[in-house]
Amino acid sequence: MKKQLIFAALGAIFLASCADTWDREYSGVNPQKEGYEYLAEYLPLKEYVDRAKYPNFKLGIATTASEYTKQQLVYALVNSNADETVAGNAMKMASCVDDKGNMSFDNAVAFASAATDAGLNVYGHTLAWHAQQPNKFLNGLLKDKELDIDPDAKNVIEDKLVEYSQFSSYPFYVMGYTPDIIDGVLHSSFPGSWYQYFMVDNFNVSVGKEYKVTAMIKSSKAGEIGIQSGNWGATVSRPMKVSTEWEEQSVVFNDITTETAFVVFQPGTFDGELDVKWVKITHEEAMAVEVEVDATEKTYTDGKFPFYPMGCEPPVINGAIHFVPTGDWSQFFIFPGGENNLDEGDYVAYLDMTSSETVGGVQLTIQNGWGGDAQNITVPISVEAGQHVYKLKFPGVVGGAFDVILKPQTAMATLDVKSITFKKIMKLNSIPLTPEEKRDTLIWAMDRWIGGMMQAMEGKVKAWDVVNEAISGGNADAEGVYALQSASNVSAEDAKNNFYWQDYMGDLEYVRTAVASARKHFEANGGNPSELKLFVNDYNLESDWDQNGKLKSLIKWIERWEADGVTKIDGIGSQMHISYHANAATQESKKNAIVESFKLMANSKKLVRISELDMGYVDANGNSVPTANLTEEQHKQMAELYTFVVSKYLEIIPAAQQWGICQWAATDSPAGSGWRAGEPIGLWDEGYNRKHTYAGFADGLGGN
Asked: What is the SS3 string spanning 105-138?
């Protein structure tokens, strides 16, 4: 739910003469608009709350922090009409934590200070959410960790070696001069004019790396020759010294710009005779270690032999394939290729097997097909009596679906195969964090973020959305409870753009951690623990299409989160981004679901807050009606629905459980907005004039 609050450009309305009245006085009535004159008789919204009957009720209006802190029209509108305000974005993690993890709470502090100085409650939105997170920073915390390797230690990688002993004649393209191959040595003599010749052709280059060309070479006289590398049109040259002794002479190239390259010797006008045994190209890489990474695993369930039989069908007993020898040559599948897909690379297999005897002749084969082109790797197993886990190496796997076949052949031993696990051998300078390391890292990150916010607020903000939009709305478990949102059950785009803490911390712990951190740091920074109220906020809790299934799931999840006896969630926030539906049957269904949601929340015994109320209009054909096309009749129907929602909240939610109602969009949405663009969702129009919906809201509060 990507939300932004709607306040239009204020233009010339800011008159210097009014500067001293912006804190409280704002009516917002357009006397020029026929049929709207009656709205001037309405008081500010909060004046309609019966404080004796509803002592805990807080009327909220959400705002953009930067507009509110200007202390102009928006400031006056909110202060005149509301007891409480909430910033749409300023207190979310991405607004306070940058890509490097640096935290700045200046905007949040300015907003909270301005509101509390004006006598308003500030509601905090939000501490733990999957959207609007500093994804680059959080994902960076989970990146592979560097292994503890000597930074000065290097591996020398050989890219190409040409040994002239394998040639009987010069093997390369001739550029005007042909060296001789004599007794396995390349020999060249000065031909009387400038000359050159290939020594190595076609080696692969990673642009930007440093390559060393080394030759075992001697000369009839000491001197210097040119060495050229690169490819046609993009070559670079270096000088190489030569002596009268067999020596390894080297030059280094760090500026080759081509993907493949050659090496050309350019003696030029050097008049000595040259002999070369070999030339090689190398580069250095940081030391790496071999790490085994889980690939695939197979275990077994008691019953008949589960795979295709090849004349041998041992049953599965006590979780192991139980093979009893017959004296005949035998083999059987232990892992079918359809379940065992391996990438290209080197592997080890761990075979957990018990044998009645120490025997020879047992083999394990992996193969990715049965034709002549299939790869087949067979390794022997030194089988010992008793239970052992055998580590078997399978280098050079080409990749694909690999059948795994155990071949006792004629070995006279009873074998029980419990499992086989394949691990890929990775040569790494870094290694992925374990699930436990990721969990611990994010516990630290969440506590740091929440602690920073609580320190900045200094106890001024006493109520928070501790967790926002956790429930997925689908993938129900055996109890019919919807799963939490996860990168595994959302669109690819959402998975890419969001950060799902619960995927790493667990469905229970991520909420428990957020709650515990909020309570700890609130108290540590001057807050009275008894005053802190933590809400779980979500949307579609008034859903009629699943009989309020999402709300029922949320209530169940709260029970699970609190089952540790320590975690305490104080309230439920219902966003209620609703619409009036012109279809009478649809509208009745929607209203019934709203009533049912209030009953369910009341029965939960938690505090209840309508956290983000706004409203659009849907015509009889199911189309959203933009503000420009809304009729007066439709506008008044929306006002009636506001009256219904507000009055039913006050009627059904016990006074002790009432937190209040927050109008999310004060004004109608501009056409280019990122939230319900062009819809009539406000109580004021874009010019900050009261609408019929203002009256509907006020009538609901006042019981009219």
From this structure: CHHHHHHHHHHHHCCCEEEEEEEECCCCCCHHHH
